[in-house]
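Subject: for your reference before the review

Hello V.,

The reviewers asked for a structural picture of the protein, and I figured it would be easier to keep everything in one thread rather than splitting it across files. Below is the amino acid sequence we used in the manuscript, unchanged from the supplementary table.
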Amino acid sequence: MRDDKNRTWLNYLNNLNVESTQLEKRKMLGFDGFFGSDVMMNPFFRSHMPYTYILDYTQSRYITMAENFAGYKSECFLKLGLDHTLEIIHPQHLNLFNKEIFPERLTILKGMAPDQHNNYVFSYTLQVKNSEGGFSKFLQRNCFISDDFGNPLYSMGMLIDITDHHFDNRIIQTVQRLDQPANQYFERKVFYLNKEDKLLSKREIEILLLTSAGLSNKQIGEKLYISEKTVKAHKSNMQDKTGCPNGFALVRYACKTGLI
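And here is what came back from the structure prediction:
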């Protein structure tokens, strides 16, 4: 089913082929109660309701889509399916999801038991062209229903408008078990729309050099006339850019790649 050399999102959808008997067996499996939570009856949630959807990967169509997502009527998605979605996602965001984020999701899912896929929530941010012609930012959170081989067949989730609250150009994907606390992640990875954004800045390289010389965060801050908190923030950004889990790995990476 999977071709590791060409696992983009759009290729996955085009190549997905599941027998109808298997589809009928799994259709709507795990969706019970997805929209039936009593908490949604609270007036607060009615006025801040996320846009919920269920997407059938096997047919590239929406089974359900909330009204007024990005200003569009639900029938736009229900009638046109993914064609409408592909038209309104920002081209850079679509390219990143297609070529990097979705293949990463397949890799993560491959390490899980297929019947556990719907117990993990994938989150990331994207930009969508709204009905007025501008771009709105959304946080998407979804989980998957997969076949016995681990191929995702359905995506069910929600989209939350964060246009007025999100100013970071990084795309952060997190994966979280449903039973985990909100601040604990099974996986976390940062993606960049522009490759140059992954390059370390002059200040970051300065901090790397001082770190490799054995200076503490406090000592680095005093030497560069910045706060210790700022030093930690720079190191965190460098770990995101390089995929290094800690400061030791960061220094080792810098030495290996010739950065310092």
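For the response letter, the relevant points are probably these. Strands lie at 51-56, 61-65, 120-129, 135-146, 152-161, 171-177, 187-191. The chain has a mean pLDDT of 87.

Happy to draft the paragraph if you're swamped.

O.
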